[in-house]
Batch of 2 targets.
Target 1
Amino acid sequence: MADPLICKNYIDGHWVDSASGRTFEDANPADRHEIVGVFQDSNTEDVERAVRAALSASDSWRLTPAPRRGEILYRAGQLLAARKEDLAREMTREMGKVLAEAQGDVQEAVDMTFYMAGEGRRQFGQTTPSELPDKFCMTQRAPLGVCALITPWNFPMAIPAWKAMPALICGNTVVMKPSPEAPRSAYNLVRVLEEAGIPAGVVNFVTGRGPGTGVALVNHGDVHAVSFTGSTATGREVAKSCAGAFKRLTLEMGGKNAILVMEDADLNLAVEGAVWGGFGTAGQRCTAASRLVVHKEVYGAFAAKFVERTRALKVGSGLDPGVEVGPLINERQLRKVEQYVAVGKDEGARLLCGGCPLSCGDYDRGWFFAPTIFGDVHPEMRIAQEEIFGPVVALIPCQSLDEAIAIGNSVSYGLSSAIYTRDVNKAFRAIRDIESGIFYVNASTIGAETHLPFGGVKQTGNGHREAALAALDFYSEWKSIYIDFSGKLQKAQMDT
Ligand code: NAD
């Protein structure tokens, strides 16, 4: 096997070793003996250098016309699109999702890059009449400064791109810190941005662990804004760190998403949506459909079809054709899923399929877990309340739409939800009453598009949204401008 690629930090336009002198390995979760890259285990000194570089580049980037910034992003989008296949293969090797999903992840980065490149020629403000004569009013967006972008491993290129592109088009400079579980895709993204002509210091990249590198970055006094995606527990720590300095902060955190299946649903369609929502990316998506709330009239028929379809899923390396479910990210996650299965059994839920790691033959090399369904789950059980982040789905019976909505809302998260029904009245009531940032009718809980706001309510988020125009609102400040051409002192409210 060839030596793994040594990947350095990118600071002020140079690829550099960590001041710590230490590195860590990024292993393939489908074959833990394969190392896909060796990365810098960065310390506070690396973070200091990266933030200093970002701060120095801030003024020239802020003063670069936004359409010129957009041209660099457009070139980056072209490069990403041209290399999609190779980038996707590297992604599957580093974090396990099946190749078609990895291609989708790269495509999300392409879409966001082109979308934000276009915003270079928009970023419209408002012009509005003044309450006084001979006075002109308008608004403009102003960048924030240095943005820290802290990302998880499950969308290792899409999420860094979802943060970096709107930050850059608004005129901010960035320091990116990807998850140590999957830094290779973010590394590839930075290489593309470099090749596209991003000036030195505008994009900086440091790899390392959360408690060292992440904490140092969040706490740095010259970081003006933090964009974090990860678990709710980590998000809470990040929020505490940002609170003291009133740093602008966006948090995209955990989920416990529900699909409601009504008695009039197209059951075959609902089963396909449930399989895709529950077991896509081996359930390791913030938008995974880990709860299925099913009307009692169709519960038996739905459960039978769902179990049959799930048992037939092919689990394996995401690079093998025909595989539908890849591995879990690491052994820790495998053990966590195993523990939740034990919790579900103890709570009295009925195990309908799966429930154990897969370890025979080729499975022995990776972190594979059988797609698992629990039936007769009570909404209060821990397996129906807590984010497991693995291929475990809870089937919860319900008596009515009202009860389905109440169960849907009974968790502390609120990212994505869905309903399967042929009744437009039921669909609209669910759209109105479900507490989630994203809602689907007759589609699964996953499938976000880059030009719509993305994010959740309750303990999934803190009120901001990623993607779409909403992202510009996070990465810029509104400046209100009054131009008085009356030639005399006008005192606004006192003069009217
Ligand atoms: P995680 O919270 O363990 O880590 C996320 C990032 O934070 C990593 O880069 C990590 O190194 C860093 N980090 C850890 N501790 C830190 C600290 N104290 N200060 C600063 N940075 C720190 O999450 P993960 O396991 O990588 O990702 C899975 C989680 O992410 C799940 O809960 C999932 O729901 C969530 N997620 C949410 C969304 C969303 O948009 N809502 C999208 C994807 C994933």
Note: Residues 50 and 169 are 20 Å apart (CA to CA).
Target 2
Amino acid sequence: MRIAFFSTKPYDRRFFDALNESHGHEIAYFEAHLAAETAPLAEGFPAVCPFVNDTVDAATIDLLAAGGTDLIALRSAGYNHVDLDAAARHGMTVARVPAYSPHAVAEHTVGLILALERKIHRAFNRVREGNFALEGLLGRDLNGKTVGVVGTGRIGAVVARIMAGFGCQVLANDRFTNADVVSLGARYVDLDTLFAESDIITLHCPLTPETHHLVDAESVARMRDGVMIINTSRGALVETQAVIDGMKSGKIGAVGLDVYEEEGDLFFEDLSNRVIVDDVFSRLLTFPTIIVTGHQAFFTTDALEAIARTTLENVTLFEQGQTSGNEVVGG
Ligand code: NAI
């Protein structure tokens, strides 16, 4: 099947080309983001393959449908950027990669927690400049601390397991109880209790209208003084200004972000020769107790292989008139 890839990077080609040898699809790699302006590039392609910051809204989908596309094969788990109703109106199938490596994201999450707690990002710079002073690098043991995990699906459950391994008390919040998480000794609590009792709060729920700005000024006010907030899920779970205000007042002790509300204008590109015009993002970077990574939590060889394998299987099964079980529907 002919597949138009959008937002393609060299690493996408590497993994997809290798795995496509056994599928034989005809892939066209476009560097452009998918949006209404670029949708005509996909004319005549029955399948398109967008990434997380592509704009797969109704206008884009209308144009894709007019161009003969009937499959949107996402190479991501999240699908909050796709207008599923618009796809359904055109009878278009949307498939995703529901699980590729929860470990990749969970381990990056724990990496942020460890780095922030022990100020490794600051120590790295200091030592390179010949500064071996410890003042300002004081951390806390993770053992015995309370970690609140919001969303205990695939990724959240792995984070809960790793943190339990450090000797943390795990509090969990989800619409469903995950027996594996309960077996760690974790306690399911309502969101208010999780916010009030956690030393570290880490977000692993999807972005939905319900979870939009889950962390805002009002919820920050209910958290422990000096709380650490980690978001490796989707940027808009966190209201950035509330985090900035919380850091300024000292209410929030540390923040680790792999995602950012307005990341679409920044992430996945080398902007080092340009001026960052997003003042809110620039303000975020001024705090010594914040680490921002550019949506790289998924970025392991294991995960990229799994993403390529499942995406291509989704396309092959669609071409054969079969379902993969990875289709997403609105509602
Ligand atoms: P999953 O679907 O296995 O788990 C999500 C969990 O969140 C489910 O248990 C669900 O019941 C729960 N949930 C839904 N609404 C909730 C709410 N209002 N409050 C509390 N819990 C709620 O998804 P998975 O694979 O664990 O991924 C989680 C998120 O991680 C994805 O939605 C995606 O946005 C993000 N992600 C980020 C990546 C990165 O590179 N930074 C890579 C992959 C995923």
Note: The pocket of NAI is lined by residues 77-78, 99, 102, 105, 150-156, 173-176, 204-207, 210-211, 232-234, 258-259, 295, 297-298 (CB under 6 Å).
